[in-house]
Amino acid sequence: MTVLIAVALTLVAAIGAVVVGTHSPERQAVVLSMFGMALTVLFVTVQAPDVALSQLGVGAALVPLMVMLAIRRIRRDQRGDERRPGKDEE
User: Fold this and answer.
1) 3-state DSSP percent of the chain in helix, strand and coil, to 5
2) Is the pLDDT confidence value at 87 over 60?
3) 68 CB contacts (<8 Å, ≥6 apart)?
4) Has keyword Acetylation (predicted)?
5) Rounded CA gap, 74 and 61, in Å?
6) Alpha-carbon torsion (73, 78, 84, 88), positive or negative
7) Which of these, 23, 59, 81, 90, could form a disulfide with 36 (CB 3.0-4.6 Å)?
């Protein structure tokens, strides 16, 4: 069991480094989801199924979805601001 925990911790550390090193916001959201999945595996390995289920729902699905929606909204608003002439005159 100790070997499995060590492998899971190594996986979490490796994906965490990839999250930090990723520059594109869209890719960060995808890698963040992978990080959540790796944490889920770690929590299952250390026999914490309730925490694993919470992490799967929130960390692997909900947070990356919210990040992607925020990126989409920001980009849409930026495109809208560029199209409106004289927005500072109002």
Assistant:
1) 90, 0, 10
2) no
3) 26, 29
4) no
5) 20
6) positive
7) 59
Rounded to the nearest 10 degrees, the angle between the axes of helix 49-57 and helix 25-45 is 170
Note the pTM of the prediction, 2 decimals.
0.79
Distance CA 59, CA 53 (A): 10
Radius of gyration of the chain from Cα atoms?
Answer: 18
Q: What are the tens digits of pLDDT across the range 9-63?
A: 999 999 999 999 999 999 999 999 999 999 999 999 999 999 999 999 999 899 9
Retrieve residue 5's tokens. 């925990």
